[in-house]
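Hi support team,

I've been running sequence recovery on a batch of backbones for a student project. Most finish fine, but this one hangs at about 90% for roughly twenty minutes before it completes. I'm not sure whether the input is malformed or the queue is just slow. I've pasted the structure tokens below so you can try to reproduce it. Let me know if you need the job ID as well.

Thanks,
M.K.
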């Protein structure tokens, strides 16, 4: 007897073809007309043949549906391509004014800048306005926004600065750098204004609650993560609880389930319960901002919950695939969105993988426990291979952490929402409810911190496509081990044996890889290294070593990557910490070295938060000193000298242009200069001051290789090696082609952490410098 195919199976090819077509067309928009025409011809041909024959009619109709899905996606891209290409021509770095409407939440980047997505209506170049109804991404310093309180989803703004073409595959056509500021012309109105006021009021209320529970609560309830610090964010990721940090499918599922259940208690019919649940979800989406990521999470959560509540996982799979096709047709750029992929995969795992896992687990545990365990296990097995693309680690305690924290998430979300809605009318009641919501929020935060602190909380994994394939294979084998009963048939026994072998090999490989990144990591590096640029993402963290003494120039944006780099280099103590300036991408990882630093040299602090960081380092036992031009000292057998900033300068205020520039040489350290984030103007002033002492062997390029550089200074330095600490796929286009051309013209060997990973410089046997690159070996 033939086994019937799952009822969702016929729609799966349509989703797969639509996804593939969308990815191809957004990466190569010029090819979208040809792709669309080809797919439409294929769809009509398959349909025409299918209507004339009977033997393979089902297969041909299925092929026609799948090809039509891809054709619809390609057609959408083809229709938009001419307008997007015309608008992209405005992204040549020229000074522009852009009129736009904010289309997302305003978020903070690791560098401390704000960014948001917007829908542009006009781009003014000089005095020539050009209609440009295209999506853009805006990057602006907080101080350059004229009214931060009115900048929210739905605000009308004028962005003044420069633009550049966005990367291929990005929804945004242009990236606008608002160097001349963002003017809020009009705040949000209507329902968006009401939602914005509710969110801001709840964030202020949560700020009165203590500890990490208060910081996490706005994210759990209304999707505002502004109070979540780097440590808590890292702990949530390490414990696989990051889906609770902000609004995700889990939060949306809670709202759907609550409304569905409440309507059921009132005796409503199934149809009414579904309508009430979806209406509640729609209101929640408006409150937490109906940006694409939230809409995707809401759609996937609604599908998953309806499939589970109706008891028809196969019907849920059909609806999921249909929703994927509809969303891709409406927004083809979702095809390259990791958030969209995670939403779809997690929902599919809940519908398809969780039920058989639960049934299989009942062989070893009670049914109730099996059901509880199957849901987070299925989600982690399905999403893990995608997550290693952004962070190549595997959370070891993700499933138990989700089990422990999951019981508190519904209470935190529901009570937090109740406090948010009650705050305008009954503030006293809202305060009481907020304290009740704080309890489960603090429980979740404590669970994350505890799980993250356990030994081996995050196992390192292979990066890129090989890492995805390896973890997917391990996950498949793990599922096979659980589902297959080796005693049932010979084939099942063979599958079981193969799965055991694959898992054993994977465990051995991961163990060896972990050892290479930990206990024996230093054995893989060049002996006697003197300079090391850590791969910490979009930020600076460069080490200098002489005679066993170590200096660290900046800490990167987060403590986790810096701590991993220090561990790999075998370093526990930092003799001198240089904080060139206080942007987050240079000081955000300071928590990793608090209590491990002897001396801190720092640039001018610009606000109370900067002073608080210095106080934290001082409380950890460090001696804190402001860096001033002419200061000098010893690092082991090497001498360091401060070249910048100029004392009391009004021309170069605290920030990038007042970065500490330090010269280090001798004691095995090649003559080196570290330029912080200086822009072209202070670089020219530094060159004119006569403080530089060329030729240098090594230069740390300023500001991650931005375009705002003074070529004459780099020509004067005469360096052999240029080190660029920079994050992969950053939103700024760093390092820019302009500075790379300057460095290449001087014959410098360029080492960049986005491509090379950890970069280590050591003296070579012939007196030349040995540049070791983690991803390319020595050079």
């Amino acid at each position: 007897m033939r086994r019937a195919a799952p009822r969702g199976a016929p729609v799966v090819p349509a989703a797969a073809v639509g996804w593939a077509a969308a990815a191809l067309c957004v990466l190569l928009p010029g090819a979208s007309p040809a792709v669309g025409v080809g797919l439409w011809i294929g769809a009509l041909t398959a349909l025409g043949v299918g209507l004339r024959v009977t033997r393979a009619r089902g297969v041909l109709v299925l092929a026609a549906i799948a090809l039509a899905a891809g054709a619809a996606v390609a057609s959408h891209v083809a229709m938009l391509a001419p307008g997007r290409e015309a608008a992209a021509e405005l992204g040549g770095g020229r000074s522009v004014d852009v009129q736009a409407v904010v289309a997302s939440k305003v978020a903070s980047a690791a560098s401390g800048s704000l960014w948001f997505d917007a829908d542009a209506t006009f781009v003014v170049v000089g005095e020539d306005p050009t209609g440009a109804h295209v999506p853009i991404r805006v990057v602006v310093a907080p101080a350059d926004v004229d009214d931060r309180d009115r900048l929210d989803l739905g605000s009308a703004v004028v962005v003044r600065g420069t633009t550049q073409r966005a990367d291929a595959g990005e929804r945004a056509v242009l990236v606008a750098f608002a160097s001349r500021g963002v003017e809020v012309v009009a705040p949000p109105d209507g329902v968006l204004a009401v939602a914005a006021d509710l969110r801001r009021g709840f964030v202020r209320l949560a700020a009165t609650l203590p500890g990490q529970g208060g910081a996490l609560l706005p994210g759990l309830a209304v999707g505002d993560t502004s109070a979540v610090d780097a440590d808590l964010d890292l702990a949530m990721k390490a414990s696989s609880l990051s889906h609770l940090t902000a609004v995700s499918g889990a939060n949306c599922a809670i709202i759907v389930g609550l409304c569905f259940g409440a309507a059921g208690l009132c005796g409503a019919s199934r149809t009414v319960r579904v309508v009430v649940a979806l209406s509640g979800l729609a209101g929640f989406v408006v409150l937490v901002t109906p940006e694409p990521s939230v809409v995707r999470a809401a759609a996937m959560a609604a599908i998953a919950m309806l499939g589970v509540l109706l008891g028809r996982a196969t019907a849920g799979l059909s609806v999921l695939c249909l929703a994927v096709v509809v969303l891709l047709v409406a927004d083809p750029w979702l095809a390259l969105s990791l958030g969209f992929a995670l939403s779809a995969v997690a929902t599919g795992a809940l519908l398809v993988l969780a039920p058989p896992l639960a049934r299989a687990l009942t062989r070893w545990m009670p049914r109730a426990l099996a059901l509880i365990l199957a849901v987070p296990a299925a989600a982690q097995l399905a999403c893990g291979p995608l997550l290693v693309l952004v962070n190549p680690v595997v959370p070891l305690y993700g499933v138990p952490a989700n089990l422990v924290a999951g019981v508190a998430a519904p209470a935190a979300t529901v009570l937090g929402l109740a406090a948010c809605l009650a705050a305008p009318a009954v503030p006293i009641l809202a305060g009481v409810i907020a304290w009740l919501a704080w309890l489960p929020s603090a429980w979740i935060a404590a669970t994350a911190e505890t799980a993250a602190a356990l030994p081996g909380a995050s196992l390192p994994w292979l990066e890129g496509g090989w890492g995805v394939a390896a973890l997917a294979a391990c996950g498949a084998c793990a599922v096979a081990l659980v589902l297959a009963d080796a005693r049932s048939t010979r084939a099942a026994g063979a599958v079981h044996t193969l799965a055991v072998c694959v898992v054993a090999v994977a465990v051995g490989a991961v163990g060896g890889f972990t050892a290479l990144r930990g206990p024996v990591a230093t054995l893989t590096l060049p002996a006697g290294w003197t300079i090391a640029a850590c791969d910490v993402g979009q930020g600076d963290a460069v080490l200098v070593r002489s005679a066993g003494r170590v200096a660290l120039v900046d800490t990167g944006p987060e403590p986790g990557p810096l701590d991993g780099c220090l561990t790999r280099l075998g370093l526990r103590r930092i003799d001198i910490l240089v904080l060139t300036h206080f942007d987050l991408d240079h000081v955000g990882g300071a928590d990793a070295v608090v209590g491990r630093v002897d001396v801190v040299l720092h640039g001018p602090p610009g606000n109370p938060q900067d002073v608080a960081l210095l106080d934290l380092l001082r409380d950890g036992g460090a001696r804190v000193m402001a860096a001033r031009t002419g200061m000098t000292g010893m690092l082991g057998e090497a001498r360091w000298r401060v070249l910048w900033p100029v004392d009391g300068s009004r021309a170069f205020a605290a920030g990038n242009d007042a970065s500490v520039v330090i010269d280090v040489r001798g004691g095995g350290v090649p003559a080196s200069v570290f330029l912080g984030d200086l822009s072209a103007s202070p670089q020219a002033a530094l060159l004119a001051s006569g403080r530089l002492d060329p030729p240098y062997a090594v230069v740390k390029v300023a500001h991650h290789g931005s375009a705002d550089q003074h070529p004459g200074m780099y020509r004067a330095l005469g360096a052999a090696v240029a080190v660029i600490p920079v994050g992969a796929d950053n939103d700024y286009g760093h390092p820019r082609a302009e500075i790379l051309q300057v460095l290449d013209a001087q014959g410098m060997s360029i080492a960049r952490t986005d491509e090379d990973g950890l970069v280590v410089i050591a003296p070579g046997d012939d007196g030349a410098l040995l540049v070791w690159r983690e991803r390319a070996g020595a050079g």
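--
Follow-up from support: It reproduced on our side and the slowdown came from queue contention, not your input. The longest strand covers residues 128-140. No action needed from you.
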